[in-house]
Specification:
2 copies of one chain form a homodimer.
Chain A (H helix, E strand, L loop, with lengths): L3 H19 L3 H12 L2 E2 H8 L3 H13 L3 E6 L2 E6 L2 H17 L1 H12 L8 H9 L3 E5 L3 H6 L6 E2 L2 H4 L11 E5 L7 H11 L3 E4 L4 H6 L8
Parallel strand pairs in A: 4-5, 4-6, 6-7
Antiparallel strand pairs in A: 1-3, 2-3
Helix pairs in contact in A: 3-4
Chain A binds a DNA duplex (30 and 30 nucleotides) through helix 4.
Chain lengths: 221, 221
DNA sequence: ATAGTATTCAACTACTTTCTAAAATAGTTA
DNA sequence: TAACTATTTTAGAAAGTAGTTGAATACTAT
């Protein structure tokens, strides 16, 4: 009892698995997350994901064939970027499922904290510090995400730009950074960088998602 | 220059690929889509996806290990269901990317129409018929999705229940069905079934997504 | 018990994916 | 033109994935 629909459905799901297959490799997922923060060349990506340029190129080809990324050649360099807004949201949805379903991820995060260096701040602590003007709150997500909604009174310094914008931050205050959610690593990386540069820095236990989920009205623009 | 973060990140992305790998098989994706419409037993699923029970069971195990589905044994039968709301949204996000990025999907849909039997109705046509009371509009998505927002004046008959609720539909009118979007096959399957049962039936070219995208206020509840 | 049914498991083969290393391509500079 | 750089391609070995078959498990009914 094979209906005309069935052949179609098979073809459709085969196409959709082009997307999921392309995302089924840790380095490719990491690549997408990096590209979500901004375009990059092959060489830069290779360094960031810790693979050979040849491998990186192959992975990028896989992503491109699935139309998850686009590339543009200018001179010697090929710059890759995320294909569009929907890919961005797909990554987000994936993180959400990971967050809600994979206990293993919880554990990874907890282990990270066991190292002690990355003890997170609770919302209460952070808000108190902020009210007493002992700290500044920094949103290290890409600018677009900040614009779409951020914690009130936070300033935007995307992780990618942090290195060049250190002079905007007060050395004497505590820098509190946050990103998307509990297990988004942008904030951790920011803390790492800031401490290297001699700042006092900590990250918020919760991310924007948790704030908005618990009823805090986010600012936009 | 490997930072403490890097090890964590690797572990995290490895965990996230458990999700995408589990979704990287056409039959497993189809299985998730079916489970999104309601829980099913292994045998039923096997029939619906067109595989042996043994294979189906193995695929279900893969999905379960990734925590995308849950199972419950009662008596002889094991019933599988989608793990939670977020998995649902992940599937949705995936369809959206497919819709926006994969020209191949467009083509599959167009090919289906070339077969002629499934010529879709435009919104204008449908609305005209509806105003003249020559047709009824049926939303064949799962009840939850209907409740979350549907085209005004549509009634809800989930595809899964259509077979048992045929007597609610007027034989003399044209049945216009719609589902999520252009290439969601729920509506096509509904049309197929309705025609088999002697109804006149067609499907809307657009789905809820397109309606809401073009500014139509959806009804809820 | 015994037979029967739904589901899972194990072992095997065929196929696909991934990494590496080396070669090829394409654009730039001297 | 040749030398150089960024990227892509290719071929091959190693690892992983998928479908089949037949057997094992677990529950029900007699």
């Amino acid at each position: 009892m094979s209906t005309p629909c069935d052949a179609l459905k098979d073809a459709l799901y085969e196409q959709l698995t082009r997307l999921t297959s392309a995302m089924s490799h840790p380095k490719r997922l990491l690549t997408l997350d990096l590209l979500a923060q901004g375009p990059r060349t092959v060489e830069v990506l290779a360094r960031e994901i810790g693979m050979s340029v040849a491998s990186t190129s192959q992975h990028l080809r896989a992503l491109k064939q699935a139309r998850l990324v686009e590339s543009e050649k200018s001179g010697l360099y090929v710059t890759y970027r995320l294909a569009d807004e929907y890919v961005y949201r797909l990554l987000d949805a994936l993180r959400d499922v990971g967050d809600s379903r994979l206990a293993e991820i919880e554990q990874i995060v907890r282990q990270a904290r066991a190292g002690r260096a990355f003890e997170p701040m609770t919302r209460q602590e952070a808000m108190q510090c902020l009210r007493k003007r002992e700290s500044v709150l920094v949103d290290v997500r890409p600018k677009e995400e900040y614009d779409a909604g951020h914690i009130p009174s936070a300033i935007s310094i995307p992780l990618a730009e942090l290195d060049q914008r250190l002079e905007e931050l007060p050395k004497e205050k505590l820098i509190v950074v946050y990103c998307r959610g509990t297990y988004c690593f942008l904030a951790l990386q920011a803390v790492e960088l800031l401490r290297q540069k001699g700042f006092r820095a900590r990250h918020l236990e919760e991310g924007v998602r948790d704030f908005s989920a618990s009823g805090v009205k986010l600012e936009t623009g």
